[in-house]
Amino acid sequence: MSTLDTFLQIARPPPEVVVTSQEIRDRGSIFVGSVYRANSVEDAKAAARHHKHVVHAGKKVAHEISAWRCMVLKPGRTGLQGPDDFELRTGYDDDGEQWAGAKILKVMQLEGAIDAVVVVSRWFGGTLLGPARFQHIETCASEVCRKFRKVEEMEECIQTLATLDDLLATLRTELDALNSKADAAKSRSNAGEDTGGDATSGQTQKQKLLIAKTHDYSAMRDALDLTKARRLIRAREGAITSVKALIARHKDAR
Question: 82 — alpha (psi -120 to 50), left (phi > 0) or beta?
């Protein structure tokens, strides 16, 4: 392995669990599901190894069953040609619990989880559970897949809000400048003197306040309040439409 490869492996932060399921207990056995982001099969396998050998180091887990679905570039493609440049790669690892990995993969397909690896951990309680163990594994997998999709949707909403916030701030700055010019022109007309300096100063100060204004969406993110996120997006879009209309009115009045 080259020195660069070694550096990249050391420098890369460890995988982080996105969400975890509630525990299922049955006759001494314990089942818990976890999900990690994974943009490649290699990432998925690395996350599963991390979960087994780091997160659960020394915890005597009987099985760490994993499955993954990753959208990756096809060999020789760049991604510039659109969706046809990508392909879905899937796989699973039973970790000694035959057929369990395929069942997790099926749940991921049904729930539409992509670019993720799901790991269901089982601690054996000493009693064979028969087919019930598969039901527990699927329940844990389904729970984390649903939560994962919510987390991904929330991140998309927050990215959208950040983009809309920036656009709205820019438009409000433009509108404020137009208002200041209109006020200055009106003052000159009424008083017969140039008061543009004060108006410009006030406008500049307002610009700084608008640009500096940021929104904290951490509480909404933690609560996974998608209803609020969607409502805020609609509100931002409405505000942008209104400000654009006011700007257009100013320009038409010239």
Answer: left
- 100 near 116, Cβ under 8 Å? no
* Nearest CA among 132, 105, 147, 148 for reference residue 31: 132
Q: Is 239 exposed, middle or buried (0-12, 13-18, 19+ CB in 10 A)?
A: middle
Q: Rounded to an integer, what distance in angstroms lies between the CA atom of residue 231 and that of residue 208?
A: 27
- Largest separation between any pair of C-alpha atoms in the chain: 95
Give the tokens for residue 196.
């543009």
pLDDT digits (tens, 9 = 90+) for 34-55: 999 999 999 999 999 999 999 9
Please state the pTM of the whole predicted model.
Answer: 0.79
- Tell the residue number behind the tokens 């396998």, with chain if given: 45
Cβ neighbours of 131 (radius 10 Å): 6
In angstroms, the CA 244 to CA 162 distance is 18
Task: State the residue for tokens 């009106």.
Answer: 186
Interval 196-210: pLDDT, tens:
445 444 545 555 455
| d(C-alpha 66, C-alpha 177), whole Å | 57
Picking from 71, 152, 68, the residue whose alpha carbon sits closest to that of residue 117 is 68
